[in-house]
């Protein structure tokens, strides 16, 4: 028996925001609930209304999935740990008098702008209300932060005259963050 239009409209609204596997799982549950109400001798339309009432407003369902999305979780973790990793690198750069290194001003500005952009993307993912856009922002932010960490891991040891404990600490923090970001990217890309 074809599903009532109310249910297909509900699922279409969910499909606009949520990934297909999540919508498919919700559709199965909604169909079971609809069948349950049909078994109680409700008309197909009344059974559909009862099933949808039980499932709740589609925007509330979307908001709940967005709130618990892997994108939001990854972005919040990176935003929370960012100041710690940043402090490690700041300590390493200050103790090595990085301001005296022959780094072009344009490169410094470019790295700063990239960092601000990736933090903004992670903030959009962490606090945004749309599942798909949060996923895109988190994916781009994760890739960007990992690229910045990799740049620091490669460039700083080459520029530092002697590797000292702050550099080792900062490198360990960036390596841990790259490992976390790689794991997060797998779950983001799978979703």
The gist of it:
With about 190 residues, the protein is mainly alpha-helical. It has helices spanning about 5-15, 20-40, 45-55, 60-65, 70-95, 105-125, 130-160, 165-190.
Number of helices: 8
The H/E string reads HHHHHHHH
Fraction of helical residues = over 70%
The rounded Rg comes to 24 Å
What count of domains describes the coordinates? Answer: 2
Structural class: mainly alpha
Query: Segments where pLDDT lies below 50 for 5+ residues?
Result: none
Largest sheet: none
List its salient traits.
single chain; 191 residues; mainly alpha; 0% strand
Q: What this model shows, in words?
A:
It is a single chain. With 191 residues, this protein is mainly alpha-helical. It has two domains: 5-65, no CATH class; 69-190, no CATH class. It has helices at residues 5-15, 20-38, 44-55, 58-67, 70-95, 105-127, 131-159, 165-190. The chain is rod-shaped. 26% of the residues are buried. The mean pLDDT is 91.
Give the helices and strands, then pairings.
Layout: H1 5-15, H2 20-38, H3 44-55, H4 58-67, H5 70-95, H6 105-127, H7 131-159, H8 165-190
